[in-house]
Design brief:
With 203 residues, the protein is mainly α. It is built from 10 helices and no strands. The protein has one domain (19-199).
C-alpha cells in the first residue's frame, strides 16, 4: 500500500524542488512586473501617439523580463510556469489597460515557450546568446494570439511583419540581454549566494 502511494504523482513533489527563497523571489519579481506594467501602459500610450503600433512594439521585451530573470537565477524546471503564472494573476488583480483575459493569455504563452526552450537546453546553458534567443522566442506565439485578440490582423501586412520583427528584437534585447545584465549584476553583488545562478554564473 505504501509503495502504491509513493508511486502516485502529486503536486507536492513538483513544489518540493523549490525552496522558500525560490518562491519568494518568483513572487517578488511577478509583483514588480505588475507595478511596472502600470507605468508601461502609460508609456505605450505616448509611443502609440508618436509612432503607432511599430513604436509600441519596442517595449515588448520589458513585459517578459521578470519571468526570464527568475529562470536565470533559479535554474529549475517549472520556474517559468510559476513565475509567469503568478505574474498573470497579480497583473489581473491590479488591472490592465488590455483587459484581464490578456494577462492570463500572455502569461500562458510565455510560460509554455520558456519551459520548452530551457528544457531543450537541459537547463545547462546560460550565456548571452541563449538568453537573447529565449527573449526572442517568447514573442511569436503571444503576438499571434494578441493579433486575434486585439485586431492586429486588420493592419497592413507590411506593418504586421515590421511590428513582429521589432517585437522579436525587443524580446532579444530588453528581455534576453537585460536579463543577463541584471542577473550578472545581482550575482556580483552577493545577493544571490543561495541561488543556482551564483554557483554556475557564465555557464
Amino acid at each position: 500500500m505504501n509503495q502504491s502511494l509513493s508511486n502516485q504523482p502529486s503536486s507536492q513533489s513538483f513544489f518540493a524542488r523549490f525552496t522558500t527563497l525560490d518562491i519568494v523571489l518568483m513572487a517578488m519579481l511577478a509583483a514588480a512586473n505588475a507595478v511596472m506594467t502600470v507605468y508601461l501602459s502609460q508609456v505605450n500610450q505616448l509611443l502609440n501617439s508618436l509612432g503607432g503600433p511599430i513604436a509600441t512594439s519596442t517595449t515588448t521585451g520589458l513585459y517578459m523580463v521578470y519571468g526570464l530573470l527568475a529562470v536565470y537565477i533559479i535554474r529549475k524546471p517549472g520556474t517559468a510556469l510559476i513565475t509567469y503564472g503568478i505574474g498573470g494573476v497579480v497583473q489581473a488583480f491590479m488591472g490592465s489597460a488590455y483587459g484581464i483575459a490578456s494577462c492570463f493569455a500572455a502569461a500562458a504563452c510565455y510560460l509554455v515557450v520558456a519551459e520548452v526552450y530551457f528544457a531543450l537546453t537541459r537547463y545547462r546553458k546560460w550565456n548571452l546568446g541563449v538568453l537573447m534567443g529565449a527573449g526572442a522566442a517568447l514573442v511569436p506565439i503571444w503576438f499571434y494570439v494578441a493579433a486575434h485578440m486585439f485586431g492586429y490582423t486588420k493592419w497592413d501586412t507590411s506593418v504586421l511583419l515590421i511590428a513582429l520583427v521589432v517585437r522579436i528584437l525587443s524580446g532579444a534585447v530588453l528581455c534576453g540581454l537585460l536579463t543577463k545584465w541584471l542577473g550578472t549584476g545581482l550575482v556580483k553583488s552577493g545577493l544571490l549566494l543561495r541561488f543556482a545562478a551564483a554557483k554556475r554564473e557564465g555557464a
